[in-house]
Amino acid sequence: MSLYTDYLTEIETRKGEGLNPKPIDDGALVAELIEQIKDTGNEHRDASLNFFIYNTLPGTTSAAGVKAKFLKDIILGGATVAEISGEFAFELLSHMKGGPSVEVLLDLALGDDAAIAAQAAEVLKTQVFLYEADTDRLDAAYKAGNAVAKELLESYAKAEFFTKLPEVEEEIKVVTYIAGVGDISTDLLSPGAEAHSRADRELHGKCMITPEAQAEIQDLQKQHPDARVMLIAEKGTMGVGSSRMSGVNNVALWTGKKASPYVPFINIAPVVAGTNGISPIFLTTVGVTGGIGIDLDNWVKKLDADGNVVEDEDGEAVLEEAYSVATGTVLTINSKTKTLHDASGKELKSVAAAFTPQKMEFMKAGGSYAVVFGKKLQTFAAAALGQELKSAYAPSKEITAEGQGLTAVEKIFNRNALGVTPGATLLAGSDVRVQVNVVGSQDTTGPMTAQELEAMAATVISPSVDVGYQSGCHTASVWDKKAQANIPKLMQFMNDFGLITARDPKGKYHAMTDVIHKVLNDITVDDWDVIIGGDSHTRMSKGVAFGADSGTVALALATGEASMPVPESVKVTFKGQMAEHLDFRDVVHATQAQMLDQHGDNVFQGRVIEVHIGTLLADQAFTFTDWTAEMKAKASICISNDDTLIGSLELAKSRIQVMIDKGMDNEAQLLAGLIAKADKRIADIKSGANPALTPDDNAKYFAEVVVDLDAIDEPMIADPDVNNEDVSKRYTHDTIRPVSYYGGDKKVNLGFVGSCMVHKGDMKIVAQMLKNLEKSMGKVEFNAPLVVAAPTYNIIDELKEEGDWEILEKYSGFEFDDLFPKAEARTEYENIMYLERPGCNLCMGNQEKAAKGDTVLATSTRLFQGRVVGDLPEKKGESLLASTPVVVLSAILGRTPTMEEYKAAVEGIDLTKFAPPLAVPSTTNSAHF
Length: 929
Hints:
Blueprint: H1 3-16, H2 27-38, H3 45-54, H4 62-75, H5 86-94, H6 100-109, H7 114-124, H8 132-143, H9 147-157, H10 160-163, E1 171-181, E2 184-185, H11 186-189, H12 201-205, H13 211-223, E3 228-234, E4 238-240, H14 245-255, E5 257-258, E6 267-268, E7 271-274, H15 280-288, E8 292-295, E9 299-301, E10 319-321, E11 330-334, E12 339-341, E13 347-350, H16 357-365, H17 368-385, H18 408-416, E14 417-418, E15 431-435, E16 438-441, H19 446-455, E17 467-470, H20 481-497, E18 500-501, H21 516-523, E19 530-533, E20 544-547, H22 550-559, E21 561-565, E22 569-575, H23 584-599, E23 608-612, H24 618-627, E24 635-639, H25 642-661, H26 670-687, E25 703-708, E26 716-718, E27 736-738, E28 750-754, H27 760-777, E29 786-789, H28 793-802, H29 804-811, E30 812-815, E31 833-836, E32 855-858, E33 878-881, H30 884-893, H31 899-906
Parallel strand pairs: 1-3, 2-4, 3-7, 7-8, 16-17, 16-19, 17-18, 19-20, 22-23, 22-25, 23-24, 28-29, 28-32, 29-31, 30-31, 32-33
Antiparallel strand pairs: 1-11, 5-6, 9-10, 11-12, 12-13, 14-15, 15-21, 26-27
């Protein structure tokens, strides 16, 4: 058996699934293809030639390395292939996006054959993915007097790789397709249950929406061959929830343009839209592919004759249609006037926000990567030639105002900004390249991040990044064949790339399946840091963190920077006092409800929530920041007291030290460097040299929200409201209800305490409740299953030291065993408590779910349709979200509790409290005070 015959076997298997041959990334297989191509009588020659030309992945894959060397051999005359001329070989190299292909092109351009050097130079002038080794080589050749090197540098200094590209077409014709009514989660576009297939783009593409929807899109394309299909969230926001490059990849696969004729199943430039625009993370991902994201505003609030908003019987604003975007509607986008028009030419609205100079550059260049690398390459070339840089790109938008104070996020961006006008103080709306300090990759998007890194020819983490972390949390629940095939390969790649990895490819330390954002929260050791993570819940309680797609994560890992506008901020402060029987999670839910009461619309959407939560340590404050992803915020920032921040940093140091003690640090000693950085930050706070980050008193906010703690008297529940007559109001996080709404009789089929929304204190609350309920009830019996998943092993270790884990073990009917992890997903649950492996568990929905049609009460964040629980024909699944004590009590009762039952159950329990005026001593490792 050879690799080629194995490949043929795989091809036959894929045929049965309606799939084409899988793109090749293995250099050894490409070497076999080459041998068969050279043998003109080989029965597999034609197929091998086809695979070599059209089905080999570019970038830094081992396949690309072997392909590039053979093309070089053809160009130099060392090999002859009738179907691949020297000219065609250069064309193939031009589509291979850096790495081995650039190395080969430089070999040829700087070689002795003048004719070949000239051809190679012409191809190199179109390339942007050059790294330090490439530019150093070019610089050295120029200094040695090489004329071709000079010619290349002069071309790069003019950015001809960008300026000679075709301009964005003035008129873009689109035909609409309503993908759903209401908010569209990325789970619809790239379901979590299919996470294992994301690196196989063709296979994963089959899970987008439904097969019926895919057929309808294809029909529209046949009917309107001159138009691009625009995917729409009618009466909602497109792309809420997880930060999924795979979602945009799927949309592009079905509706976008082919990136290269020689690279299969990679499409770019999708057009997406929503009545309420595009989720911030999703919009960034659209930019990665050079796509277009439009805020339609096609449904508006109805006004009466006096200009007042008309409300329905529930007090909700009545909406009326400003213009139709029903499936099959033909519209035209004018990129010059930045306007949207109907088929008759009537202007419907401005779409200027979708066609900023920067976004148009992404469209022209085929995505944001090419722009980022292009800017760096032009800057290098100008410096190498000793010329003044005359940027070919639109100048960064710099907004300033004399005397205006700065919000917290404006301060962080100004501290970390790159390439801005010296001395300029930038305000919200400015476009900024910003230094990234911490980068996180998670395990279901990680394979795509690895692909993106290979595609952009990156081989090592940027030295300017303090630390990169690769998690194993999204595949923690079940160590099945899919995980066993994908995860070790991912961990090896990321470990080699320079990240701290949850699994040791060498097997020396225990596999850590800790939730990515909880780890990032621990390893962020400066409140001035910028963090990028491959998950929408990358929201830290220190610094400012942005959930990102796998491509943006790859770019941050490779370059140490990200590009984005400085976001606007909404200031959240608190007044009053928390009732003793409430948990801080109730405050989090109430913040959303009170914000909507105060402002009518969701002012958090697309903005940074600056929460003045000074007395809450990082673990507990994370509950608020984590939730801001569901509030549709772009990010969040915690404003902490000095002593509180010191306490959080000391806790972070202790947990980083545990990681070091377990052997997780790498040769570069990134983790040790974090402890040193934390020590310096603590010293600066104590000395007064740099106190905890605070905004200026005269900072300008988009809006302010004051949360009245006195107004919260009951536990609050976020309800997906699955039976709301208005489909657009289902599965949003805007329906917040008190527990009494359910009358103590809503059946609960399963409870879930876990995911990133719980901290050590939540696990202690579970233990305390079980002890107390046993005292009052005589015996604790579960009337519904209770799944408990701690977010990190550190927390479990601390619980074991303090005696709480022993209590949880006493009441559990199942406890995870890392020596024998589950190899199959659980399909049925008994009425017992399950102590599951640290990780995302049910919240992720990709490995285990509740039974279809169940009503789940959970501490997690996901109430989207089909995520935690699927539907039955006769009953929709419900994922209601509440505090830990409400979930535990509901699982024991098998229903939602009454207020009387709830108050009795939590009496004397040490719930997570929040008292704005109080300060936490720096020596405290728990915010239960």
